[in-house]
Amino acid sequence: MKKNHPIRRFMLASAATVSGIVLLLALKPASDPAAASAQAGAVPQQTAAAQGAAQGGAAEQAGAGTVLGDVVRTEYGPVQVRLTMSGGKITKAEAVQAPAGGTSSQKTELSVPKLNQEAVAAGSADIDSVSGATYTSEGYKKSLQSALDKAKTAGGGASDSSGSPGKASAAPAAQARVVTGAVSNTQYGPVQVRLTLDGKKITKAEAVQAPAGGTSSQKTELSVPKLNQEAVAAGSADIDSVSGATYTSEGYKKSLQSALDKAGV
Hints:
By secondary structure, the protein is an alpha+beta fold. It has helices at residues 6-31, 33-62, 103-122, 134-154, 170-175, 215-234, 246-263; strands at residues 64-68, 72-74, 77-86, 89-97, 176-180, 184-186, 189-198, 201-209. The chain starts with 5 loop residues before the first helix and ends with a helix. Mean pLDDT is 76; it is low at 28-63 and 156-174.
């Protein structure tokens, strides 16, 4: 058959038409707008879910943290409490320092686990002292309170009275101030008192200087914790001297009064 024969041209044209139709049918699913839209939407949905999970994890971690209370020196040794907080609540309490040696170790082993449990249960420093471990208990409560105060100041701390984390913590933190009294020189060494006040109320008293060396160190360890407690309880310098530490007590009261004068109390 000749190349330019009419029948040959018809057959070639028909074959080209059929090939074109087959090609269009093969390409249609990939170019379908609905299918393309569905495929495009799958990735954003998965991304949104991943972002939600990440944000949720961050939110859970935001309220968690560890706070270390001040070291409180007692007659039998230092006490220091560490708290783990989450969502404004105490989730774990532990004593990183506690009296040790002789009967002190036995009392610590008996009292500290109970104090830890009570701190978590109460969510505050308003807990009972353990019978037979009064000094350790009082030191624990003071260090516990200082840890709670630090947590409030940091903004992620303990709950307010309504149980909502962080709502009422800003105002007390803003009012708190620290005043250091003048150095009072005694026969056995200098004494200097530092106060933390909330308004005109003493919330914490501590001796930043006190007699040290030999028997002076022993007398300081016995007297200063008691003087600190009395200063907070009395809210003034009208406190009793500690027997056996008269010079330290008198120096303490003088420095305490100067701190109160500076604070305008």
